Amino acid sequence: MKELEERIAREGTVKPGNVLKVDAFLNHQCDVALFNAMGAAWAEHFAGKTITKILTIEASGIGIACIAAQHFGDVPVVFAKKAQSINLDGDQYVTRVFSFTKQKEFPVIVSKKFLNAGDHILIIDDFLANGQALAGLIELCEDAGATVEGIGIAIEKGFQGGGDGLRAEGYDLDSLAIIDSMDAETGTVAFRA
């Protein structure tokens, strides 16, 4: 998606350790018009697939998923929580994932009342690096007996291999911007053609 690539090149900041900051428009301050265009792009890509719910993980994926949901007939958005709380009651699906950005392992939790057998899931998230978060969300779907119809990612760090692994497993993965390389010294980002 050209518009997203241009925003990354113009407003993104490359930091040491393969970190890309896009907080000016994607995951701290949210550009809703951009999110809407992203949702339209995913709706076009996944047209013809039955989507009954969108699944994401807190926190950065929530806004993107909610705006995107409008392009899928206003399907509900379910977000996996990264911590147990008193608000989470009843039976739950739980797994653990390692966050590249936070360099820490988190529980990933979804109430069983919101993820069910027969659901057709589109997973949406802001970043894909090594694929650990997505693997956790896919595991929750499998545990529930839900079908993963596709995965929509805003920014994929193609050089970290998570996307290639998911595609090799047969998942329909649509990343709107795939980064082939980043250089913290020059601040440059190279996108996959």
Structure, briefly:
Pathway: Purine metabolism; XMP biosynthesis via salvage pathway; XMP from xanthine: step 1/1. This protein has helices at residues 2-11, 32-45, 60-69, 132-144, 162-168; strands at residues 13-15, 19-21, 53-57, 77-80, 92-99, 104-111, 120-128, 147-157, 173-183, 188-191. With 193 residues, the chain is of the alpha/beta class.
Task: Characterise the protein shown here.
- Keywords: Cytoplasm, Glycosyltransferase, Purine salvage, Transferase.
- Homodimer.
- It catalyses: XMP + diphosphate = xanthine + 5-phospho-alpha-D-ribose 1-diphosphate.
- It is an enzyme of class 2 (transferase).
- Its EC number is 2.4.2.22.
- The chain is α/β, with parallel strands linked by helices and 193 residues long.
- It has one domain: 3-Layer(aba) Sandwich (Rossmann fold).
- Helix content is 28%, strand content 34%.
- It is built from five helices and ten strands, in the order αββαβαββββαβαββ.
- A six-stranded mixed beta sheet has the order 4-3-7-8-9-10, sandwiched between helices. It has a two-stranded antiparallel sheet with strand order 1-2.
- Strand 1 and strand 2 form a beta hairpin.
- Helix 2 packs across helix 3.
- The protein is globular.
- The N and C termini lie close together (11 Å).
- The mean pLDDT is 92.
